Amino acid sequence: KSIAVGIIGTGGMGTRHAGNIHRLVDGALVSAVFDTDQKNAANAAAVCDGAQIFDDPLKLIDSPTLDAVLIASPDNNHSDMTLACLKAGKPVLCEKPLATNVEDALAVVQAEMQSGKRLVSVGFMRRFDPQHAAVREAVLSGELGQPLLWKGVHRNASSAYGTSGATVLTNSAGHDMDSARFLLGEEVLEVYVRGIKTRPELHEDTRDLLILNMRMSHDKMAVGEVFVNADYGYEVSAEVVCQYGTALTQQPDKVLLRHKAHRGFYVSADWLSPFTEAYIAEDRAWIESLQNGTVFSGASAWDGYMAMAVTTACIESLHSGKIVPVNTIEKAEMYQ
Ligand code: ISE
């Protein structure tokens, strides 16, 4: 049976998922879209052979013609939309972050626990990126010995969503917290965050360059740079340092260019192109899990909640200058 998906939020990210699911994923079609901007909704509907355009996201969620919902609306309504999906008993893939504060993320986890069914998936797409997957495989092979340290780099050419420390930590750095958890297979216990504003003309709240220091379970360490105004382009990398070697993400098929007295590689301007494959693989894995009635292999509501719990501690650390513990509820059986 073909899975009928409705998409809430059809900006750049939602339209990308719509095209992936409708055109590139077997056994699924996008049959409904919603966006507050009619033009965006019409564009996405056109990509999906004339999907129905809803004027209310809650009506879309409740529509009996839809099997599943993908949420790619602005960050601050992710948790409300996800809760509405849980209420309707619909499987949902919510773009990261699951919420913009830890209380709302916890409400999603608790509602899912009450429903007794794993309905919520979260779009931490790096888990499906071939480079990140290869690093994880190398670590899991055991050949490098025990993993000890995660080192991440996350740079945006310019910030699309604001540059206060809280916004950067909530919107961008969640990927790095998830990457460290995923690649080391450990939880974040404590954080220490430093941040600066990189240009004098920026607003005084700006913390566009951050260093995250995370103490992980089993005495592992993680440190990441998050720089949302790096100017030259978009880049992400992750390295796991182990007892007998290290594994670092590498782009395999880059062309060495010689041009105008330079020799080097192009760098992408945004995340859509470096993570093209990751988004397709994520959408494919989600649809397959719905078809087979199995648990999604990517991030769960628990992972979305953990990212928000770590984010909350990071914001506190950035503001206080102190080491801050990550406080969470106990992990329920259904997320083990
Ligand atoms: C954006 O929202 C994303 O999810 C990108 O993957 C990330 O790299 C960027 O920093 C975020 O702003």
TrEMBL record:
A Pfam family annotated for this chain is GFO_IDH_MocA_C3
The molecular function terms in GO held by this entry are: nucleotide binding
Give every GFO/IDH/MocA-like oxidoreductase domain span: 133-247
The residues the entry assigns to the signal sequence are none
Which part of the chain is the Gfo/Idh/MocA-like oxidoreductase N-terminal domain? Answer: 4-124
InterPro entries, A to Z: Gfo-Idh-MocA_inositol_DH, Gfo/Idh/MocA-like_OxRdtase_N, GFO_IDH_MocA-like_dom, NAD(P)-bd_dom_sf
Q: What is the name of the protein in this document? A: Myo-inositol 2-dehydrogenase/D-chiro-inositol 1-dehydrogenase
Q: Which organism is it from?
A: Pelolinea submarina
